[in-house]
């Protein structure tokens, strides 16, 4: 593969300017070309202003900014602009004839080995490539807006795109800090295919009278399904309104995929009335008074968003069916491109593939639209009994050591297992599947003799930001009961779990995350962390044992202060109150966790197990009962090899070697 040194970006607009800035930051020599000098001046100013902001924030120096600007040239003459380019990234308006004209013009004056990457978000790469002198050197590179915040890049392979062109595009993309996924040249590629279909389906739900209003659909998508925003609200607000774009995309899908993908009725009437969303004042919602939208949590209680989810899963399965991309790439695309809280195929596994297929069949039989027909990928999974989490196998497998939210490793030498809460993009917040995985991880190390102590910490900068509130959006006390009981059961189990558990509180431990820490045996807190019960500020209560453990650990006065005032507790206060055992400077935190976990892992396992049970059960009854069970426990430990080893080692002045026997 040829080394990339010079990149030319065509178009200094919303996307081109930022793509050029990323290329300069990656160290490339960058030329920006637009059709008029004034467009180039405007683009240069936007880049310069954005870098000034970063200098102000202390992200880099003013000299660095000048160095970046020094890597950029701004040229109107096309021949001059592309003559040295190894890679040309085209970001001109989304018009097929224009893209083709640009591909033709550029490939005629550029070097023969130049790679032409188009940033189209919906047009066919093969069609654009036809106009180029070397169609095999044309590739799609679909950046997401704004590229400075959205790291996803879809690399789209046209029918004749060469391996070399793909590699050139990928190398440059990685240098520009992109997370790359690959997809063949299909309508909408991955993220927009799923987004547009699910948004259109949200609209169909209203047309079909399954939901009454946009508010009802959006509330269910947001609070029940856990999407960051309702999809209709998103159509109104994304870059100030994309209803016009969505309408054209669905027309395009209807032409290229199947006519049943046509724009849904409300979308069509909004488009025809030129109500494109925020930018025109009206869309699915009225924005004319300038207010931000408020979606009430309980507005979607009567609408089941499974119809929207099932259609998104079906589109994903259809992409897999034609081998357009892979399972992992689909899940990366929806998380990084659409800000979904989880991969859509992970969501399907949790919902149950049979439930997804049943829903698609229901929609198909009721509304007779081809797009609802379940993909053969899904029906085959059902036939093979691969129904998702409940059968241990779905799009992913859920066997031993296989987790979505937890990272579990065990060090045979130290006998310490590390259980990392691994959902950093959502502050490691807990949902029911997450809680189930912590339980499963504890199962996996419970009988492992090579594990004597478990350390729980959080991936990224948080320990655990709390628990999902979706149970509260169901409008049923039953759902909340199940949700609360799930957490209570796990946390109680941890208190009597036969091995010591350390909470290594590396960052914020909030709500359900703090309750998790309180159920551990020892708490070590970094001085950059904070603890907080925010529940009462939301009209909730700490529902996973928080009130009960807090009062036992720190007494009524302090527990009431924490719960009722809902303020953050600093590390200094936390250790003074006895809410945590130790605090450490951030740079000494890991060393402290290592030292204490090793010490516990070298302890006498049977005595530790018994002591934990005594400290828990004994505290539930009166003191005399506690003393009695303590006596019984002492007797049952008296004949163990560990006790013999402990006392022998004491008199032999050596460290004991406990075996748990
Ligand atoms: N804006 C988004 O949200 C977004 C997201 C992903 C992809 N895209 C895609 O990126 C591309 C550009 O979109 P945008 O939003 O930056 O558009 P834009 O209108 O902001 O910018 C396009 C720029 O291209 C210039 N231009 C027109 N003809 C040209 C030519 N022949 N040579 C060089 N420059 C030319 C225009 O003068 C303008 O400055 C489109 O294909 C769009 O679909 C946009």
What's the short version?
By secondary structure, this protein is of the alpha/beta class.
Describe this structure as you would to a colleague.
The longest helix has 20 residues, at 37-56. The protein folds into 4 domains: 6-184, Rossmann fold, CATH 3.40.50; 191-391, N-(1-d-carboxylethyl)-l-norvaline Dehydrogenase, domain 2 (Orthogonal Bundle), CATH 1.10.1040.50; 406-600, 2-enoyl-CoA Hydratase, Chain A, domain 1; 603-651, no CATH class. The strands form 3 sheets. An 8-stranded mixed β-sheet has the order 3-2-1-4-5-6-7-8, with helices on both faces. It has a 6-stranded mixed β-sheet with strand order 9-10-11-13-15-17, sandwiched between helices. 47% of the residues are buried. By secondary structure, the chain is an alpha/beta fold. Helix 8 crosses helix 14 (327-337), helix 13 (306-321) crosses helix 15 (344-351) and helix 15 (344-351) packs across helix 16. It is built from 26 helices and 17 strands. Bound molecules: nicotinamide-adenine-dinucleotide. Residues 10-16, 33-35, 39, 91-94, 102, 119-121, 143-145, 239 line the site of nicotinamide-adenine-dinucleotide.
